[in-house]
Amino acid sequence: MAATPGGTTPVPPNARPRLTVLSGPSGVGKSTVVAHMRKEHPDVWLSVSATTRKPRPGEQHGVHYFFVTDEEMDKLIANGELLEWAEFAGNRYGTPRAAVIERLENGAPVLLEIDLQGARQVRSSMSEAQLVFLAPPSWDELVRRLTGRGTEPPEVIERRLDAARTELAAEPEFDRTLVNTSVEGVARELLALMDVV
Ligand code: ADP
Ligand code: 5GP
User: Could you give the CA distance from residue 168 to residue 182 in angstroms, rounded to a whole number?
Assistant: First the structure.
């Protein structure tokens, strides 16, 4: 499909959404929902991001993230290899462009799990993307989940909760909101929105 002068891609009427962006505050359950979806439907393709964050226990290079140094991230950005990137709570994260574009050119569905700043960049560069916001049932539950995960020290949790306030306020920018009350329920809804079931 040819790009328009503005850099966005024209969308045929009634086209199936091929690019889905899932965003929401840290700790809301994005990874849990996506893991559940992919357990049931291993064919759901999720872009693997590059990050300068250190791996959490159990996280594997090339599976959960491409864990890169600051210098490697500088190069990815400078070489235009990222579709979008952002700094989030002290680390940089970005979506490798080539794999996503290849899938989309083959008409295959693509899922990105990225932060609000990244979602905004995708919205402006790829207007056909559908943006889905994953919301917590309540603020207190978000704090419980983020703290209960036990993967970040208190000062990092504070930074992530600060970011969460901004992210929650941006919910109206998204096409759809799903409230993560039940992992199974949200996974089902997301699969339906991606048109893979
Ligand atoms: P995110 O990827 O959005 O940062 P995670 O998927 O790591 O969030 O989830 C954060 C914590 O919340 C995890 O401990 C996870 O088990 C828990 N969690 C996720 N979804 C739910 C849910 N629907 N109900 C209760 N706990 C949940
Ligand atoms: P975490 O460190 O908890 O894995 O991720 C922190 C935040 O970074 C989450 O909101 C997650 O969605 C976001 N994130 C992960 N990968 C990317 C990416 O490639 N680009 C952007 N913009 N955000 C990302």
Answer: 19
CA 26 to ligand 1: nearest atom = 4
Mean pLDDT to the nearest integer, 102-117: 95
Going by CA atoms, what residue is nearest to atom 10 of ligand 1?
Answer: 27
Domains of the chain: 13-193 (3.40.50.300)
Using most ligand atoms within 8 A of CB, pick from 114, 147, 174 the residue to mutate for ligand 2: 114
Q: Is the pLDDT of residue 72 over 50?
A: yes
Q: Nearest bound ligand to CA 51?
A: 2
The average pLDDT across 25-46 equals: 95
Q: Classify residue 52 by its DSSP letter.
A: S
What percentage of the chain has pLDDT greater than the value 90?
Answer: 88
Which of 32, 143, 147 is the pocket-test mutation for ligand 1 (most atoms within 8 Å of CB)? Answer: 32
pTM of the model: 0.93
